[in-house]
Amino acid sequence: MRSAHLHRCSVLTVVVTVLALFAACGRGPGTDGGTPVPDGELRIAPQFSPRSGYAIDTDDPYILTQLGVTEALTSATADGQVRPALAESWTQVDPLTWRFVLRAGVTFHDGTPLTPAAVVTALGHVAGVAAPPRALRGLGLTVVEDGANSVQVATTHPDPILPLRMSSPNAVILAASAYTGGAPSVIGTGTGPMRLTAVEGAQRASLERFDGYWGGRPALARVTTTFVTDPAARALALRAGDVDIAQGLPESSLLEFSAGSGFDEQTVAAPRTVLLLLNQSAAPFSDPRIRQAVARAVDRTALAEQALAGSAIPASELFGPAVAWGAHEPPPAPDIEGAKALLVQAGHGPDNPLPVRLWTYQNRPELPTLATAVQAMLREVGIDAEIRIGEYGTQEPEVLAGRYDMFLLSRSYLTDVPDAGATLRSDYACDGSYNLNHYCSPAFDSLVARLDTATDAGTRQDVFRAAARMLVDDVVGVPLVHSQENGVSRNVVGYTLDPMAKQLVTSQLAVTG
Amino acid sequence: MIIRRLVSLPAAVLVASVLIFLLPRLAGVDTVRAVLRTRVAEAEPDPVVAARVAAELGLDRPLPEQFLRWFGHVLTGDLGLSYATRAPVAPQLTSALGVSAVLTVLALALAAAIGIPAGVHAARRPGGLVDRIVTVTSVLGVAVPEFILAPVLVLLLAVAVPLLPALGWGSPAQAVLPALTLAAFPAALAAQLTRAETADVLSRPHVVLARAKGLTDGVVLWRHAARLALTAVTSLSGLFFAGLLSGAVVVEVVFAVPGLGRLLYDAVLGQDLPMVQAGLLAVVVVAVVAALAAEVLQLALDPVARAAVQR
Predict the structure, then answer these.
(1) What's the rounded Cα separation, in Å, for the pair A82 and A74?
(2) Is this prediction's ipTM beyond 0.85?
(3) Where in chain B is the domain with CATH 1.10.3720.10?
(4) CA A380 – CA A294 distance, rounded (Å)
(5) Across the interface, do A131 and B39 touch by the CB < 8 Å criterion?
(6) What's the CATH number of domain B89-309, 1.10.287.70, 3.40.50.720, 3.30.413.10, 1.10.3720.10?
(7) What does pTM read for this prediction?
(8) pLDDT digit string (tens) for A357-373?
(9) Min distance A181 CA to chain B CA atoms (Å)
(10) Which of B38, B87, B154 has its CB closest to that of A240?
(11) What tens digit of pLDDT does each residue of A71-130 get?
């Protein structure tokens, strides 16, 4: 079913692109930067639709945060700095406890004030569900009131990034009226600039301005959100004038929205990397010479600029330009002769090519394309990769168990909070729960252990940089490309594409006339 | 005959429900892992949490017990809670069924309104201009898939000439493009079928006799010929109805229509078992009832078939 849909999507994308060239003359005028319309109405088509009925313990709260409906105690910048939101300030009471002072004058959409009791109820609920969300899992989080305007948040073991963790969309604070048994209701219970007034399943959500917003009167009067799961259909809706902002459009259709088209197109680096994982727990990739040969054989610039037609950025390490601690320099040029020499040292050569299995999945359409290009590059140095494209769900247990050779994976290295500690531990520590490379280095583990006590963002980022360098030196897989996100608007001011998917509708966002 | 069919209905639904219940399980779907991934994307599986979720969903019970519990609840109208939204399935399913039913009826009405007159007129002068136009158009209607027709219609009628909205559901204007897209295939098939049947009927002795008696072309065509041709189209309409109801996935995704196709599509991707099971069961029931209704309608239109049944 999924593969059929993807096939249809790709065909649909091609069809739409070709037809759009013929229909382009029918496009109306309109550019950003016009005069904001007071009390305007905005229509948007975000990239992701709600999948779990806006349940707070799922990934759906990202949508609510993005739409300006809900807020958490803190917010975070993309470079890992934590900022006040519903909490004005915070201090560490002891290694296990933090005190958050609540902002005065905050009102929920139902008219009730923000109180310590409301925070206790909200955080207590999400910490106590059967499957706690990633940002709060395993913390043993408890929250108690601390006077008239603050709360104390405690964990069972020291958590140096707790204030940053509190910026997660899963940790948003809803009014007490949301918690009446069952899943919390998100309609009319948030604190953000827009009040959610109606939801129609996974298809549509309606928002109205919240005049009592603590951050000032929002410019928009209403927002209508239509969740269109098909990227090509989102592009069509934007061109037809049915929506003012659409995100996650097919690369092939972005040309229609380039400069001079009347649309404002934005593309930003996303905190996501396509990795060529190499199973270090078994031959042949337990031999570092063969891993090094693969790293030298792959031309990452060609993959990003030719195979993916410039829709991605070549990767030189795990972290890319989406984050403050990511690498900006280009990857090393391929070294075909060097790769061949390493393979010869390892007992393989032109007459004795190394057969390997290269697995990937097609949930992300760029992966099969990259697999084919990588296969061709490896063949040039004497590695004969047999591609198998399957379903991620069935491949994961095999890969986790170390029963694979090469696996092409798209992985977000920032989930929930702009801090790479969780990814480095789960993906690369000896006892990491998602250590698909089956890499184990005591030196790496002791480096990452410094994160257990480092509260300062700068210190943490130094560790992230050093860890990324160590992964390159040890050839722990090969980072191929960094993904990008895109968004297109027309007749809108104040729209900034957020690669972390936490911000879209703000007090400043307005439509223009 | 109808009573015999009515008796076999529950048996058909029971067999279908067993298959619907068993298929995802026999396919080796790890439901708990899928549910966890739906709740928190890209989460690595944690055995303790997985066991807790399995118990929460009743998936730790033996298979026969799970089936009996599910089917027992279905018989009382309780379709359970969605794994994804944790909200009752029944209201979501009813709402989606309503949307798809409206869309399907609109599409079939459009198909009949376009296809049948086109077929009848084409049959009047085989090889004539009308016949050639209808033949070419209906071949295109059968051949062009929905995922190509949908964007073409949007580009023509929503982008180049901004007459209609490109997406959404709720206003009559928003229903036009999805209904037109869905109507293309049945309209083309109805035109081809009507043309062939009408041409055949027009050459039969009783129609030749009617003409000889001095009846006008119009009366002969519509009273004697087209009515019989309609029976063939009617017999297909039941199948079309059930097919369109559940098969409008592409149309509902492209036009953001909150119908059954989209609901089932999301449910299958999210491996939301209660939703998938209830949706498929609803499709089976609708298909069986629609086939029966089409048969009754065909009998009403075709005296020869009626006589055969009565004998």
Answers:
(1) 7
(2) no
(3) 89-309
(4) 11
(5) yes
(6) 1.10.3720.10
(7) 0.84
(8) 999 998 788 999 999 99
(9) 12
(10) B154
(11) 999 999 877 789 999 999 999 999 999 999 999 999 999 999 999 999 999 999 999 988
